[in-house]
Specification:
binds threonylcarbamoyladenylate, ten-stranded mixed beta sheet, Rossmann fold, 2 domains, DHBP synthase, 15 strands, 10 helices, alpha/beta, about 325 residues, binds magnesium ion
Length: about 325
């Protein structure tokens, strides 16, 4: 965390109240924030990101009390917020309608809204002062790698958005998205708050896997929003391999300049070892991808991390950013 000049917060508030977009630090990734009740402000977010209007945004609020003004918070949701908020979890709840409700543009017209109370002190302070919901998707162009530093945001948008620099994000991957609009809770996006922890507070939870779930229609994101298979991808072609495929992956790519990311795999030579600690690996993952992407390698190879629920968030991000190693054709020379 870096100290922030209070005039920066004041400037951000001024812009947000005027319907502008501001990039803010959160503990997961940087967000592109705007007034969630203002349709024009929301439109600016979608335009900047080039995001399809069918993919809804997360509404960030300062407290459960503010959440209740914009969503129906039942006992189950209250328990989740009491245990994990402020923190890296977004909870999909029935949206509350009213004169100053969340704009339909922010939820892609859905009757539900994802609510998150972020933990980063700058985000929280801003939200308390704003006293309303801020829609904030990750501050990257649609389908690009999420930003975990202010410089990453600058690399995406130049000086088209005002950025509050709150230092590198501590967690490094996006929040867990938990759907509580169905009788059985479902994890739509795995993250730092793991399934076991959620189950210990509200009982059984399903995990929806976009790569295998046939009910997810890629052309109709509004059915199961945010579950498009490809996402978070670097521009350099990227392939994933499991440890047993290490030799094969290296052999196939031996004629190309390559970056190899592993997770504590000491059996092969590599330039980027994110270690076998899932917290450390998540913290550095996007930053590493972005650095590699800027260095003009021909291919990126990423090891599939170990099994275990604490790795699920990274498994998900890696699957979305890569193709299976079998898809790599070694170039003829
Ligand atoms: O950590 C985070 O959540 C970051 C920081 C900035 O807070 N934000 C973020 O936003 O990752 P975004 O827009 O990149 O991802 C939002 C996810 C998408 O997968 C979206 O489809 C899902 O949340 N989502 C939002 N509203 C939803 C809804 N009503 N129903 C189902 N999924 C929803
Ligand atoms: Mg995103």
């Amino acid at each position: 965390m870096v100290d922030v000049d209070p005039t920066q917060i004041a400037r951000a508030l001024e812009l947000l109240r005027a319907g502008d977009v501001v990039a803010i630090p959160t503990e997961t990734v940087y967000g592109l924030a705007a007034d969630a009740t203002n349709p024009d402000a929301i439109k600016r977010i979608y335009d900047l990101k080039g995001r399809p209007p069918t993919n809804p945004l997360i509404a960030h609020v300062a407290s459960i009390e503010v959440a209740e003004r914009f969503a129906h918070v039942d006992d189950r949701a209250r328990k989740i917020f009491e245990c994990f908020a402020p923190g890296p979890i977004s909870v999909v709840l029935p949206k509350r309608d009213g004169p100053k409700s969340i704009a339909p543009e922010a939820t892609a017209g859905l009757p539900s809204v994802a609510i998150r109370i972020p933990k980063h002190p700058i985000a929280l302070e801003l939200l308390k002062k704003f006293d309303g919901p801020l829609a904030a998707p990750s501050a990257n162009k649609s389908n690009h790698v999420s930003p975990t530093t202010a410089q990453h945001v600058r690399d995406e948008f130049g000086d088209r958005v005002f950025i509050i620099d709150g230092g590198p994000c501590s967690i490094g991957i996006e929040s867990t998205v938990l759907d509580l609009t169905t009788s059985r809770a479902r994890i739509l996006r795995p993250g730092h708050v793991m399934r076991e922890l959620i189950e210990s507070t509200i009982g059984d939870v399903d995990t929806v896997d976009p790569s295998t779930d046939e009910s997810i229609d890629q052309d109709q994101p509004a059915l199961s929003p945010g579950m498009q298979k490809k996402h978070y991808a670097p521009t350099t072609p990227a392939y994933r391999f499991d440890r047993s495929q290490s030799e094969d992956a290296l052999k196939k790519s031996e004629r190309q300049s390559r970056a190899v990311i592993v997770f504590g795999n000491e059996t092969i030579e590599t330039n980027f070892d994110l270690t076998e600690d899932p917290t450390h690996a998540a913290h550095h993952f996007y930053d590493t991808l972005r650095r590699i992407d800027g260095e003009h390698f021909e291919v990126i190879l990423i090891e599939i991390p170990p099994e275990g629920s604490e790795w699920l968030g990274l498994h998900d991000r890696i699957r979305r950013a890569t193709q299976p190693i079998d898809a790599l054709k070694s170039p003829a020379r």
